[in-house]
Design the sequence.
């Protein structure tokens, strides 16, 4: 009886302890596809284990355009979530408006300055203070291919955009869709920046980071638009408005030969139990094997009321950087850990290639931020580029020369 009473007291103490620190975090994100949902559930599970309540606020829509619209209206009405998926320079935009909370203490305890590559930690800070926690590093310049479709079409895996056009013709003749694509502005921009990257990182940076008028109006940019229009011949008739993960499933099912997409696409192959190097192949986007366009996902933390909720929010930030989360999340997501020196054994060949390329490109200067995924420029300029790129893709009468002129003007007007 004494023993029983003791056990009850101990249990009551444990519950009491958990409750006194338990808070709620509301997390706004756009991870709704199969691979994405499996990834975010890892974080939810860890928070629940800590005794906190996870309030999921998922806003569907690839690359987060709809999520950002919802976030803005929540923030304007004075009711932002505790945490939101925000990336790149947009973190600075939110920081400058005074919405974000300071994570320096948890960052110091976790030695974030030591465990993160500087290219990652820089983006997580506003005026030198941590305000966001990185979950991963995605490589955007990837091509995902179905080897069976290539074999049946007698086509080779292309390593340049010129070769892409040749092989795509063979694939089309064999009755398959050469390029799985979804006609949404951000997917068009993802394809466009991969074509631009073949012209070299120097050109890419001048156009999408420095926004040099000369680069935007150059012959190289005219070539990029021309290739972009030629590539369009190899998407199927139903491409308009299609979600990216539906396009990935066309490659998985053997309906289409390839997709140009960041390695969140790998999350879909993984969720479908497909194996890298056997059921599908990952290759750098044509002509870009030496470069790495990065896209870092992060959760920024908003100022919230209440000690418990603030404690839960700091726990969330701490857990994100812990090796356990970084490994499991990224195995599901298709990306690589943001944290350095993580064990590699559980990761597949595509992730190994990405890890190697990330390190190699950071020493050669070929590591560059993705324009299409909000890493290279402000949301205003990105939106302006999106508009020109997507209008050109869908307008047969617009010439590449007209497109570069529109691009240069649109960028200038939104700087
Ligand atoms: C995000 C990824 C996401 C993808 C598709 C990208 O911008 O960084 O995490 O999986 O969009 O929604």
Sequence:
């Amino acid at each position: 009886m004494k023993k029983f009473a003791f056990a009850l007291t101990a249990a009551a103490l444990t519950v009491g302890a958990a409750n006194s620190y338990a808070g709620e975090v509301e997390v706004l994100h756009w991870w709704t596809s199969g691979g994405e949902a499996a990834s975010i559930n890892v974080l939810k599970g860890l928070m629940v284990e800590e005794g906190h309540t996870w309030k999921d606020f998922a806003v569907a829509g690839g690359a987060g355009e709809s999520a950002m619209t919802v976030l803005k209206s929540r923030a304007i009405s004075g009711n932002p979530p505790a945490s939101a998926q925000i990336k790149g320079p947009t973190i600075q935009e939110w920081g400058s408006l005074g919405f974000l909370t300071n994570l320096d203490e948890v960052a110091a305890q976790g030695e974030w300055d030591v465990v993160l590559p500087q290219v990652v930690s820089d983006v997580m800070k506003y005026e030198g203070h941590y305000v966001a926690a990185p979950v991963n590093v995605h490589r955007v310049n990837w091509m995902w291919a179905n080897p069976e479709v290539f074999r049946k079409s007698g086509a080779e895996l292309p390593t340049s955009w010129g070769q892409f056009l040749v092989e795509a013709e063979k694939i089309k003749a064999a009755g398959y869709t050469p390029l799985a694509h979804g006609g949404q502005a951000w997917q068009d921009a993802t394809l466009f920046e991969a074509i631009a990257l073949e012209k070299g990182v120097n050109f890419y940076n001048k156009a999408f980071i420095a926004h040099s008028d000369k680069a935007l109006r150059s012959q190289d940019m005219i070539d990029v638009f021309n290739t972009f229009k030629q590539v369009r011949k190899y998407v199927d008739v139903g491409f308009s408005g299609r979600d990216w993960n539906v396009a990935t499933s066309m490659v998985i099912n053997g309906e289409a030969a390839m997709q140009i997409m960041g390695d969140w696409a790998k999350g879909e192959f993984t969720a479908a139990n497909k194996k890298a190097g056997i059921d599908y192949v990952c290759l750098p986007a044509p002509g870009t094997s030496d470069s790495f366009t990065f896209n870092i996902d992060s959760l920024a933390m908003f100022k919230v009321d209440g000690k418990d909720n603030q404690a839960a929010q700091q726990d969330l930030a701490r857990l994100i950087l812990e090796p356990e989360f970084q490994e499991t999340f990224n195995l599901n997501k298709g990306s690589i850990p943001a944290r350095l020196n993580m064990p590699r054994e559980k990761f597949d060949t595509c992730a190994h290639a990405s890890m190697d390329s990330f390190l190699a490109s950071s020493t050669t200067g070929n590591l560059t931020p993705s324009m299409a995924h909000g890493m290279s420029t402000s949301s205003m300029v990105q939106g302006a580029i999106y508009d020109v790129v997507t209008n050109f893709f869908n307008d047969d009468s617009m010439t590449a020369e007209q497109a570069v002129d529109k691009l240069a003007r649109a960028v200038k007007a939104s700087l």
